[in-house]
Amino acid sequence: SATKDSKLFTHPRSYGTFPRVLGHFVREQGILSLETAIYKMTGLPATRLGLKDRGFIKPGMFADLTIFDPAQVADKADFINPHQYATGINHVLVNGQAVVTDGRLTGQTGGRVLRK
């Protein structure tokens, strides 16, 4: 994915995939339950990739958490303006560090590249 200042093409899914699932397919269409959607975004990929300490909220797991308002979460990115952050995402913790607080980036990253 390109950086925000890049001249390269960025697909709207770079910014809006998960909020779109939560807003459109869960809340608006009712195609998935909230629990199923979250599992498909977290536990399922972690399990498939063999990441034993991620993907679930349990003691000893890394604290990667997104706190969102299910009634407000929505993707805003489109092909004209692909660099649009979603709405309804209140807080994000990566490895226990706040990277989004009150809907704003904190400047912290908290994460690192994972290798098997």
Q: How does this model look, in words?
A:
The protein has 116 residues and is of the alpha+beta class. The protein has one domain (13-105). Helix content is 26%, strand content 15%. The protein contains three helices and four strands; from the N terminus they run H-H-H-E-E-E-E. It has a four-stranded antiparallel beta sheet with strand order 1-2-3-4, with no helix packed on it. Strand 2 and strand 3 (97-101) form a beta hairpin. Helix 1 (13-28) runs antiparallel to helix 2 (34-41). It is globular. The model has no long low-confidence stretch (mean pLDDT 91).
Q: Give the tally of β-strands.
A: 4
Q: What is the number of helical segments per DSSP (H or I, 4+ residues)? A: 3
The helicity comes to 25-40%
Query: Number of folding domains?
Result: 1
Spatial order of strands in the largest sheet: 1-2-3-4
How much strand content do the residues show?
A: 5-15%
Structural class category: alpha+beta
Global shape = globular
The radius of gyration computed from the alpha-carbon positions, rounded to a whole number of angstroms, is 15 Å
**Oligomeric composition of the shown chains:** single chain
Contiguous low-pLDDT stretches (5 residues minimum) are none
Provide the succession of SSEs.
Answer: HHHEEEE
The largest sheet is: 4 strands, antiparallel
Output mean pLDDT: 91
Euclidean distance between termini CA atoms: 22 Å
